[in-house]
Fold each of these.
Amino acid sequence: MSYQYTAFDGVALPLYNHEQGHDPMASEPTLLDSVGGAFDWVGTGRRKGRKQLINLRGIYFGETDYLVDDVGDFLVDDVGDYLIVGNGVQMLQAQVTALREKKSVKGTLWRTRLYDDVLEWKTARLLQIGWPRKWDDHAIIGEMSCQFETAMEFWHAATATTTSGSATNGISLGLTVDNAGEQVEDATITIAATSGTITAVSLTCAELGISLSWAGSLASGSTLTIDCDAQTVRIGTTDSYSGFSLGGSHTAAGWLTLAAGANPIVATVTGGNATITIAHYNQYP
């Protein structure tokens, strides 16, 4: 097993004697019945996945947890007995309770790549938790099962990759966004006005079929954020979607779909100067 689910929304998952499935998200069929055969309605394009269930099983084990000082020495009471945080039963209950409190919660599911301990994540919702009780467990072993649901097709790197540059009024700025993973559709674009009042912004890439534009009023010190995943356009926290549009030459499936490798983006601002940043997460199946 090259990966291991390790945590959800800040809670450690059961890892003793674990069983986990790490299949990539399935894609739905694209063939439709036609006269004398079948028709692939997607054509030569890539059919992305839509949703996935992730299942795992594992064991929590309750062990007595001792209090230690800042150098790792055990603490004792007046008669020399070790001080404890909790006994095995209490520690098992604490682990199970922490997980059960996340039931129905939408949060970050983390997996670890075992050969180098690199962390990757997806946003998921914890749908079900199973905990069959057996006498043989003696209240210190909890055999747990979890089921998660996610709409994210690919696992995201722990930190975002940012590409930025300084754009001058009316002069095209070239940005090369290096994507080291699979196709990205959830990048975020920020335009931080540094002088003047920006009245128009455009981002284009003929190779990728991208043509985005925005018109409005972006004063110096303000930031326009285009979230390509949530498909929102805001100045600060104020909605500014009315000024956003896709150009006639825009053919990409999303707003800013980044292919694997180097992606050349041309950005232009009108009316002032700005720092333009494109942030994305490298993603893996």
Note: Residues 173 and 267 are 5 Å apart (CA to CA).
Amino acid sequence: MSKEIITLSEEEVRTLTDLKSPLLFKNDFDLIYESQVPNVGILFLEGELKILRKRKILSTPPLGSLIGLYHLMHNTPLPMGVKVCKNTSVIMIEKSTILEALAQKSGTLYQIISNL
């Protein structure tokens, strides 16, 4: 699952939180369904995320995980679902933000995505 879930350093997480505001979910919510092409990359900051396959929990990624970015960039379905739990904070990175980083060829986000 190395392409599906990328663990970022604390410095990379701090830099990305300076660029985008975190969202706090007050209820459980399915962010990405299994076999769906993601609409956003998800940076997990606080709380609990669940990685699902066939409605069963596979894992809970560590804080600082970036999920779905590779599949968003390559327009391919994610082979797992992602459920955010109550009182969880994430940053959603839209495709337009990724395309902008690729065009500028600089910054933390570009360094992360250039390795994919």
Note: The radius of gyration is 13 Å.
